[in-house]
Amino acid sequence: MRYAETGYNLEVDLSRGSIDRVETDPAETELYLGGLGTNAKLLWDRVPPETDPLAPENLLIFSTGILVGTPAPGANRTIISTLSPQTKLMAYSMMGGFFAPELKHAGYDKIVIRGKSPNLVYLWINNDKVEIRDASHLQGKGTLQTSQMIRQELKDPNVQIAAIGLAGENRVFFASIEQGKSSASRAGIGAVMGSKGLKAVVVRGKKDVNIAHPAKMMEKCNDILDYIKVRDKNPLGMVPPILAGLGSPQEMRIHDEEWHTTNFAWGNSRTRRKDFWTEDVEKEWTKTSEDVRERFLSCYNCPMSCGASVAYPGLQKYMMKCYSKLTYTMASFTDLDFGFRIVQLATDYGVDSFTCPQTMAFAIELYEAGILTDAEMPGFPADSEGRFFWLLDKIVKREGIGDILADGTYWAALRIGKGAEAYAHNNIKKHEQLPLKLGMLNPIYFLMYSTGEKINITQIEGQFPQAPFPTRADREDFVKDWVHVPHERFKQYFLDWEPRGENSNPYYPTVQMSCELVDWMEMMHYVDDSVGMCAGLSSFPLKPAYHIHNYPEVLSAATGLAIDEEALSRMARRTRTLIRAINIRRGLTRDDEKPPEDHWKKRFPELEKQLIDEYYKFKGWNEKGIPTSESLHELSMDFVADDLKKRGYLEE
Amino acid sequence: MSGEKKVEFHVHKKRIIKNIKIDVDKCNGCRACEVACSLFHARPKYSSNNPARSRVRVIRDLVNDIYVPVFAGEYTPAECLGRDKYVIDGKEYDECAFCRASCPSRDLFKEPDSGLPLSCDMCESDPPIGEPMCVQWCLADALIYEEREEEVEEGVAAGDMEIGVEALIVKYGLEKIAETVGRLSKRDKN
């Protein structure tokens, strides 16, 4: 018997209309654990590097993580992996909610989808019975309405549905896949789903997920729940309220938005408004939020309640998550009320809440600069709200200028020309980033932004504070119960980190320390993504519930595998290395590994070069960022080295 | 029989009433209660998770923002003659939404493999685990366990013979029966 995992994948070929239930190799679990790790292995093995992301040969993988469906609180993530139409690299976006547990209870660890259906279909997985069904009646329908119609059609309120909206159908490069209150939205995976003619994946499962060591597992889970209770009662000091607790930032609960509104840039990631947050704004926004907020909601088997349902008068109810309510508000220089209205529509169309508002703000800048004119944008409204609604509509329908903007700022700027490139200024690896423009370079963040292959800073940061605390006494207080560090010396790094003076950014933490810290933070995200654990309980917040010291026991109890800290680190390293190798084969180079030029005012080219050089070495990569034969051998991944040699990326 | 005064014997007894208070407003829809329940009732204990086997189900309707934990009650062999449908605060709940019964009209509270009915046993076990598992795992405090003592009057249960004699009295009248009993007792003495 397989524990924690089912040991089966569902293989669907939409071109041929074939469906197979395929047993997986337990040895792969021991090497890559599951979730993201085994997704990467499938993409490496089966998608040739020259594949066009929107071609039928690309795979779209919906995966559970190894702990999904076990009692581990917060293990509910669906890890969706494919090739991105926007970055052209491997894309992996994830979502919480209820989809992945349902899939595992239906008897599958993953759904591996290839091919392209001639007409729009949806996939209906009802335990052992799997059908490809006609979805022509759902064409053009919003994600919320699609879910509602499918539930009624199947006469089962308990099915879980992952669907695309108009944006996905029209292959918008930042289209999301939406599911209840959750969405997987980065890197255009919704466009890949649209390219396959797949409107939705629907799943219902009623089977057991088995636990190898039941009593031990329960003991560990109860420890986790106890810790969550303690953290709930004791928010961290010294960090903004929005980051003081566990979970995804409590955007619908905490009304103090000073941190986001004054630290993050408005418009097309341009303007800092350091005086924006006043008592009047706080009063008004609190009222706006509380008027529309219906109730707090959680994902499967998690007590955190990070989302909330929103009932804006006259609009269909929807779920607000994380900081989407502010990305549109801030990109458009409007207010929170507008944020709540447009996110409803954006969720229904199925677009990413980082890239979409930024792309619209980019278009407005181009219009104001005279690069785009009324010729390209006939009927473009004069007011900011009107402009955003107008642009959103054009983009998701790929109408007129919308067809160009739908590729995101990088590709749009290339097509528009006339100096538009300078306005697509906030990208890394062709993908829009958080709107942050800061002063002094932070060496840790420099490395994370440059080398991250999840393309989003929130998916690599965490664990180590974003900035030094002002006084030594505060720092000493912080490290007292900091059991989460892999090495005691990390506490010292933090104790000695000062806001100014000799031990401050950019030369402290030192290059070596920065490498160690970034590697740790990144590793914890890679573990989560293979486990299916929400980063909100693990790799994202400071002092999380899961960490490198308690994960091995939880994983061993659930799976029956002997997993210690070293083994877990190696699994994460293998996955990390394999993704790097996939992207190397797809053309990723060292030149791509840099933050937006204007991310920091103060830059240090020599230090930056040294940081990258040393970090590559630390990771076992050569000076071009390619994993070396030796490091691949050490990870039992000679097959990767052989391929990279054959293709000329490594020398024989 | 008319005018007959029926004599009943009563015993005053105390019993513990176990109650789970469900605060629907606090439910965050996470279904940890379902996970905890299915684990506790797995054999061996905690060896598998499957919310489809749970004796508590969160009735969920995302579109209408409905989240209501409902516990499995007793099995009923027949459907109700009529049905009910509640509308509360403008939200329409599904037919029979709040009913606890495992019933032929629906899929709820049945073992997925065998179809056998499931019912909440308040996690009674030896040794006892304290509060039921679902309550322990509900960190949103939507499920609160309460115990109270209640004094119950229990009538003395009528024995088989008493039931038989009563049936004869109904059929023949008390006098005739008394006469018969008297005659028989004399005859037996002789």
Give an account of the 3D structure:
The complex is a heterodimer of chains A (652) and B (190). With 652 residues, chain A is an alpha+beta fold. Among the domains of chain A are: 8-204, 4-Layer Sandwich (Aldehyde Ferredoxin Oxidoreductase,  A, domain 1), CATH 3.60.9; 217-432, Aldehyde Ferredoxin Oxidoreductase Protein, subunit A, domain 2. Helix content of chain A is 40%, strand content 13%. Chain A is built from 24 helices and 20 strands. A six-stranded mixed sheet of chain A has the order 2-1-6-3-4-5. In chain A, helix 1 (26-32) packs across helix 2, helix 2 runs parallel beside helix 21 and helix 16 crosses helix 19. Chain A is globular. Chain A starts with 7 loop residues before the first strand and ends in a 6-residue tail after the last helix. The relative contact order of chain A is 0.12. The model of chain A has no long low-confidence stretch (mean pLDDT 96). Chain B is of the alpha+beta class and 190 residues long. Chain B folds into two domains: 11-154, no CATH class; 158-189, no CATH class. In chain B, the strands form three sheets. A two-stranded antiparallel ribbon of chain B has the order 1-7. A two-stranded antiparallel ribbon of chain B has the order 3-4. Chain B has a two-stranded antiparallel ribbon with strand order 5-6. In chain B, a hairpin with a 2-residue loop joins strand 5 (87-88) and strand 6. In chain B, helix 3 packs across helix 4 (174-189). Chain B is elongated and about 80 Å long. The relative contact order of chain B is 0.21. The model of chain B has no long low-confidence stretch (mean pLDDT 89). The A-B interface holds A 69-71, 73, 98, 101, 105, 144, 147-148, 157-158, 180-181, 205-211, 214-215, 217-218, 225, 228-229, 232, 294-303, 305, 309, 311, 316-317, 319 and B 25, 28-32, 35-36, 39, 42, 44-53, 59-65, 67, 94, 112, 137-140. Strand 13 (209-210) of chain A pairs antiparallel with strand 2 (48-49) of chain B.
